[in-house]
Design goal:
Blueprint: H1 7-17, H2 25-31, E1 36-40, E2 43-46, E3 51-54, H3 57-60, H4 69-81, H5 94-106, E4 113-117, H6 120-137, E5 145-149, H7 160-163, E6 180-183, H8 188-191, H9 198-216, E7 221-226, H10 242-252, E8 256-260, H11 274-278, E9 284-287, E10 299-303, H12 305-318, H13 331-346, H14 349-368, E11 374-379, E12 384-388, H15 404-414, E13 417-418, E14 420-421, E15 427-430, H16 438-461
Parallel strand pairs: 3-13, 5-6, 5-7, 7-8, 8-9
Antiparallel strand pairs: 1-2, 2-3, 4-10, 9-10, 11-12, 12-15, 14-15
Helix pairs in contact: 4-13, 5-13, 6-12, 9-10, 14-16, 15-16
Bound molecules: pyridoxal-5'-phosphate (PLP).
Residues 59, 119-121, 124, 153-155, 227, 231-232, 260, 262-263, 288 line the site of pyridoxal-5'-phosphate (PLP).
Length: 467
Amino acid sequence: MNLSTPSAALHDKDRQYLMHPFTALAEHERKGPLVMVKGEGVWLEDSEGRRYIDSMAGLWCVNIGYGRKEIATTLHDQAMRLPYYHSFSSMGTDTSILLAEKLIELSPVPMSKVFFGNSGSDANDTQVKLVWYYNNARGLPQKKKIIARQRGYHGVTIVSAGLTGLQSMHNGFDLPLPFVRHTTAPHRLWQAEPGQSDAAFVARLAADLENLILEEGPETVAAMIMEPVMGAGGVIVPPPGYYAAIQAVLDKYDVLLIADEVICGFGRLGTTFGSEKMGMRPDLMTVAKGITSAYVPLSACILSEKIWQGLLLGGERYGAFAHGYTYSGHPLAAAAALTNLQIIEDEGLVAQAAARGELMHRLLRESFADHPAVGDIRGVGLMGAVEFVARRDPATPFDPALKVAGRIARAALEEGLITRALPQGDSISFSPPFVISEEETAEMVARARRAVDKVFAGLHAEGHWKG
Ligand SMILES: Cc1ncc(COP(=O)(O)O)c(C=O)c1O
């Protein structure tokens, strides 16, 4: 492996050979990539030697920060001892068994079994297969529809992309598949009536869900999938009482709850799981990202005893469970996960995420509340977003063609900050590694404010914003 390729050559080779995910392809051909070559703590360094605070922990995932030697040592030792063996046909590896035990111990509600995959997307596809198999085994072959929420993000595989409630992920892909339905997002800024109380808003959201289930026919609705706090859809924290009201509707119509914990799991909200923080009682949970802090790919479906018993019943009817990946329970990934979870425990990083989250939210409010284009500052734990609007009252979005959040994310790069323009509306998000210091948290928010000021000065000069 030759890692001494000069930066300019890397840029050329990238444009020539690499297709990037979630990238404007033609624009990328013209402009080329930003290439990261090093990381330490919350800091990244690019191929030109510029340094950035990574306020997104990669893609909401490098929770223990970059450059952790413990994980590198674990990967080295495991690769020397046993780099790979599979889990098909009752075979297995020690690290995947120990990790499954750990996940069941950590689960916020009693859970029974763990099924490993490689990404959040494939795990959510697996969840749908598990739910279908379960209902077929129960003799309920009609009960197959899956409800998700507008703005929810569940991945990009053929099922998961459809569950994702963001139009840009359906366009051009003939999605969603016909068994998917979406219900209202619990997003106060755009969905609540002006002055509506939380209680009235929650009652409306629960009624929307119930009406959808009744329209479809409860005998056709199998499960609902929800992120405890929506990530990519806008860092949307539902109002108090929301999950209790939603759960009551699901229970009434025998609809399973899948908690997509891909971002929230393992501490992001200041509790080990988002379900714990938000009061969800899932039948199935999806985890990925933070399980290894993204040092290597790994995901898992965690299922309750009720689901497990259904799968056993299915076995009597269909024979051996015919689903799984070459890399299900990969021993390197499982070893990295065990070390990662140990680091989180030993260093008290869940509590630290809660504490740094409080600081981050206070600083975001202090820094942005007075800005006339800020429509909302929200979040929980170490996950936050600032949403920009053309007018505050009534809330009016900017023309999407202005790409306000995209401009801010680009201006932030010039300030040495990585933030993310979320795909719907004009929100920028913050989800740094849990190891961020107080000083780095303050620096992150200060850099974000400078980027925002630059962009709004530009919009003002162009006549797109009056201020
Ligand atoms: C909540 C949630 N679910 C699923 C996924 C998909 O995970 P992956 O990109 O590993 O397929 C993501 C990725 O951002 C996510 O945020």
